[in-house]
């Protein structure tokens, strides 16, 4: 797939600004930043996103580290945008504060996004307590915009070749500055979760490839429920992606299964005690419907690749690995897969 604008003239050795957000106690921030500095980036930017007192003190004075203090928690999306606006590098590399890059990881990511047709590249994210096991080798995206850590728990040895992926993992990824600017960075309304899916699918829509780079090994101290409002943000932002990213014909074909699945998700939320978060997400979407409509128009106007050429990248069954949220009954997953096979054929036939 041909790349979008702004890809010419870059090389594997171009300088990179690495962006790390700090929030709360940050037990792994020191190890994260020191591992990054060992790979000689142009700079490491640490954003004080309401970090605990003293959390940034041990890294803030290190040579090559710049601390930004916006004065409030901007969320993942807003914090990344804030740092990107201040960064000097030709490549932006985003690394979670609980992730530690292995030697050569930054160079591998920079080399991968030097290709003009590559928009985003994420690394081989490994489980820190089991470094031979995958945390993410690129994330699948379901046609109803669920997403999860791809290949979670699998042996890393089975993922040694660069591959295209529906979505990056936000734990560690790189993007050339012109691509970031063209895409407009993250949408701040997401705050946290789902913004990686949005950015990745918009990169595909702009004509870029999204790639998993196995040579960029990153050890991630992964915690599924790190954020107290994760269920609210995950569900609200998933629906935001569903309302904004697909073309009109695609949205119409997805309306029926989306409504059925909403009933199922609400039942799970009632069972597990987060129904209030689910309903709050609906309320937010309803109260921001005009803004969502405006953003949908902007996203659709910017795309150059239609859904007919992209639906093959979306996942049919809803089958995340065990441990990543509530399990989905096999008959439900199979029914969704059958529906997607039918709907995808119609979307592709309309090209």
What's the helix and strand layout?
Elements (H helix, E strand, L loop, with lengths): L15 E9 L4 H9 L5 E9 L5 H4 L4 E4 L6 H12 L4 E5 L3 E3 L3 H9 L4 E10 L2 E7 L26 E2 L7 E5 H7 L11 H11 L3 E12 L9 H15 L3 H25 L2 H13 L1 H14 L27 H20 L2
Parallel strand pairs: 1-2, 1-4, 2-3, 6-10
Antiparallel strand pairs: 4-9, 5-10, 6-7, 6-9, 8-10
Helix pairs in contact: 7-9, 8-9, 8-11
Distance between the termini: 16 Å
Could you tell me the mean pLDDT?
A: 93
CATH fold category name of the largest domain = Spore Coat Polysaccharide Biosynthesis Protein SpsA, Chain A
Total strand count, please? 10
SS content category: alpha/beta
Which residue ranges are poorly predicted, with pLDDT under 50 across at least 5 consecutive positions?
A: 1-10
Evaluate the radius of gyration: 19 Å
The H-and-E topology, N to C, reads as EHEHEHEEHEEEEHHEHHHHH
Give me the CATH superfamily of the largest domain: Spore Coat Polysaccharide Biosynthesis Protein SpsA, Chain A
In total, the number of domains comes to: 2
Key descriptive features of the protein:
10 strands, 19% strand, disordered N terminus, Spore Coat Polysaccharide Biosynthesis Protein SpsA, Chain A, 2 domains, alpha/beta, 351 residues
Give an overview in words.
This protein folds into two domains: 205 residues, Spore Coat Polysaccharide Biosynthesis Protein SpsA, Chain A, CATH 3.90.550.10; 119 residues, no CATH class. It is 40% helix and 19% strand. The protein is built from eleven helices and ten strands. Strands 1, 2, 3, 4, 5, 6, 7, 8, 9 and 10 form a ten-stranded mixed beta sheet that branches. Helix 2 links the parallel strand 2 and strand 3. Helix 7 runs parallel beside helix 9. The two termini are 16 Å apart.
